[in-house]
Amino acid sequence: MPLHVARPSRSSAADRLVFEREYREKGFPVVAGIDEAGRGPWAGPVVAACVCLPEETDGLEVLDDSKKLSSQKRETYYELLQGRALSIGVGIVDAGTIDRINILQATFLAMQQAAQQISPNPDFYLIDGNRKPTWTDRALTLIKGESQSLSIAAASIVAKVTRDRLMDAYDAQFPQWGFAHHKGYGTAEHLSAIRVHGICAIHRRSYSPIAQMNFPL
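The structure assignment produced for this chain is given below.
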């Protein structure tokens, strides 16, 4: 069932449920959205979330792409989802695994882990991006999916909040690198800390510029 496509962007609250309704009508009762956070950083895990929303989504139309929201609003919507989503799954793949299998495969693995936590098992997935993972053929990929699907927007918020909280915890463990500020992304502050302190256990050794610095194993 080749379903690797992208559709025109939809923005209204009603339109952002079109794909969920479409695939339910096609015989897939449980439709879940998947998104990830943390593909680009130099440090920390990649986190994926899978969220299944109820058919009646009153109060959830405020959800948006996590990147467009303040950290305070992400936290508020994250807590809202804990009480309103039918089911939420989270997958976390660490830096060592990212270095070993590459970030694309690590992202797919995190997505699979998240999907396996949904109960009942989803019949169909709406996935942000343009690459469909190999572990399912019952999926539709959507470029800028957070703007097109409320389920994907919900997953983006769960993934981002989960990862930010993890990076805050790592900041307490590795305070020299300032993870609470930049969340592991490639900022000037982060690069300066690496030059002074080297790298720690959660840095991705396969990523530039770390890979070019030849740190001892």
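Interim note for the steering committee: The beta strands are 31-37, 46-52, 87-93, 124-128, 139-142. The radius of gyration is 18 Å.
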